[in-house]
From TrEMBL:
InterPro entries: Ariadne, ARIH1-like_UBL, E3_UB_ligase_RBR, IBR_dom, TRIAD_supradom, Znf_C3HC4_RING-type, Znf_RING, Znf_RING/FYVE/PHD
Gene Ontology biological process: protein ubiquitination
Gene3D superfamilies per record: 1.20.120.1750, Zinc/RING finger domain, C3HC4 (zinc finger) (3.30.40.10)
Keywords: Metal-binding, Repeat, Transferase, Ubl conjugation pathway, Zinc, Zinc-finger
UniProt name for this protein: RBR-type E3 ubiquitin transferase
Record-annotated RING-type domain positions: 124-338, 128-177
Record field: catalytic activity: [E2 ubiquitin-conjugating enzyme]-S-ubiquitinyl-L-cysteine + [acceptor protein]-L-lysine = [E2 ubiquitin-conjugating enzyme]-L-cysteine + [acceptor protein]-N(6)-ubiquitinyl-L-lysine
Organism: Saitoella complicata (strain BCRC 22490 / CBS 7301 / JCM 7358 / NBRC 10748 / NRRL Y-17804)
């Protein structure tokens, strides 16, 4: 077989490098809808992938079956059973079959002697061994193994397997100790149409489950799957965020929501740690804090962390409670953890206090971005109503007021990235390359807080065009900073530039 007629990603795909010629792999599947990220346009943190609909998955199976039946000269439904047995590994199937056809066929549970299409028969004087019915004119059926039972027994058996047990790939003959597998044509002949549809759906699922390069979109009620070249072996060097055709973004490695730039193994560790330490951390999701200067209560009702006390006008950072003045300059240090305390810690108690302090530094920022993203979104929902009024009372068109929605979308995404930079940083071994990472983190954070602050400004229709331009500029800037950060961390992963303080 030449690689040109390969229809899908080959099973030995896992060794292919991302930047190597992925064209070959996808060359023949282009007619199945657009490849979402094309090679030439890929950014360092993007992976090539494509969304597959249920129809695509069915078509791909049909084509793969036909390719093999052309080689083996067997009926399609038998080849389908063979391929399913060999987990769609065509090379393995062909090798085994060429080597010893009888054993390959037997292992898969098919018999090739009788390849006539399945049919129901009335057999005079027949009594069903399962239900002992011997009615004249009763429909009966026998698989190629010649285990004949009445049609009702076959139907009851199959329906139970499909509906109750969710089986599809390997439903064996009900005859005692018989391992002949029922194929699609037999199932279609015997069961009701709704049961057959269920059976086909289950078969599609096994196709996806058996293929390490295809995963279902984890979004509830989404029927798309995504095909991606990333393999489990590569998860140390790449964070494969993919998007299905319905726009759901998820990690191909672990099926969680996008968590770039933090690699899957660290995400798992971090979430476990947060769960275990949830009481120690005791992070207050409360939306109020006291002003350090005048002790009056300050409420946070947007995502922006640049706070101003209503009473005394003191401007401070919600995260570290430090004066905001330092946050807008190169002095900005809010994201960086000062390791001093842990270095000086001598006794066990001081050490454990320092390690808790370190964890809380990262955890608070992680949790804060998560909450801020929610608040940004809520604030937008309130603003949206205002925008609708604005639109009704002025010349503004619907399109013209969309800039705010776009800004909030970018903001929420950037906060998600920032959130995971803190989990990533928690496991990073400090050295000269982490400085660059922290600088990028700081720059993105500053850009995000500035945009967030602007989005909270009251909307004055007279000033709208200035505000709009300002927000548009800041939105572009946030995206630029995010790209810089993600590109650098992705390159670092690939070059194995990062060292971790845990085993990964
Ligand atoms: Zn029966
Ligand atoms: Zn049998
Ligand atoms: Zn989806
Ligand atoms: Zn992941
Ligand atoms: Zn105050
Ligand atoms: Zn701060």
């Amino acid at each position: 077989m030449s690689s040109e007629d390969d229809f899908m990603l080959e099973d030995d795909m896992s060794d292919i490098e991302f930047d190597d010629s992925m064209d070959e792999v996808f060359s023949d599947v282009d007619d199945f809808g657009a490849v979402i990220a094309e090679k030439d346009k890929l950014k360092p943190y993007e992976v090539e992938h494509k969304s597959l609909s249920v129809d695509d998955i069915r078509r791909v199976q049909t084509v793969r079956v036909q390719q093999v039946s052309a080689v083996l000269g067997l009926p399609d439904e038998q080849v389908a059973t063979l391929l399913r047995h060999f987990k769609w590994n065509r090379e393995k199937l062909l090798e085994r079959y060429m080597d010893d056809p009888d054993s390959a066929v037997k292992a898969a549970g098919i018999t090739t002697e009788d390849s006539a299409p399945p049919k129901l028969e009335v057999v005079p004087g027949f009594m069903c061994d399962i239900c002992c019915n011997d009615d004249e004119g009763m429909d009966t059926y026998a698989l190629p193994c010649q285990h004949r039972f009445c049609k009702d027994c076959y139907e009851y058996y199959l329906t139970q397997k499909i509906k109750d047990e969710g089986e599809s790939r390997k439903i064996q003959c009900p005859g005692e100790k018989c391992n002949v597998v029922m194929d699609e044509k037999t199932v279609k002949l015997i069961v009701r149409d709704d049961v057959y549809q269920r059976y086909v759906t289950l078969l599609d699922r096994t196709y996806v489950d058996d293929n390490e390069h295809i995963k279902w979109c984890p979004a509830p009620n989404c029927e798309n799957a995504v095909e991606c070249a990333a393999s489990l072996k590569q998860l140390q060097t790449v964070v494969p965020t993919v998007t299905c055709a319905a726009g759901h973004e998820f990690c191909f490695g672990c099926s969680l929501a996008d968590h770039q730039p933090c690699m899957c193994a660290l995400v798992k560790r971090w979430l476990k740690k947060c769960e275990d330490d949830s009481e120690t951390a005791n992070w207050l999701s409360a939306n109020t804090k006291e002003c350090l200067k005048c002790q009056s209560t300050i409420e946070k009702n947007g995502g922006c962390n640049h706070m101003t006390c209503r009473k005394c006008k003191y401007e401070f950072c919600w995260v570290c409670m430090g004066p905001w003045a330092e946050h807008g300059t190169s002095w900005y240090n809010c994201n960086r953890y000062e390791e001093k305390n842990s270095i000086n810690a001598r006794d066990a108690q001081a050490k454990s206090r320092a390690s808790l302090e370190r964890y809380l530094h990262y955890y608070n920022r992680f949790a804060n971005h998560e909450q801020s993203a929610k608040l940004d979104r809520e604030l937008y929902n309130r603003t949206e109503k205002k925008m609708a009024q604005l639109q009704a009372n002025s010349e503004l068109s619907w399109i013209e007021v969309q800039f705010l929605k776009a800004a909030v979308d970018v903001l929420v995404q950037a906060r998600q990235t920032l959130k995971w930079t803190y989990a990533f940083a928690f496991y990073l071994q400090r050295n000269n390359v982490t400085e660059i990472f922290e600088d990028n983190q700081r720059d993105l954070e500053m850009a995000v807080e500035n945009l967030s602050h602007l989005c909270e400004q009251p909307i004055d229709p007279k000033e709208l065009s200035t505000l709009k331009q300002n927000i548009l500029d800041k939105t572009v800037y946030v995206n630029t900073r995010k790209e810089v950060l993600l590109s650098d961390t992705a390159k670092g992963l690939k070059e194995e530039r990062w060292t971790y303080n845990v085993e990964v």
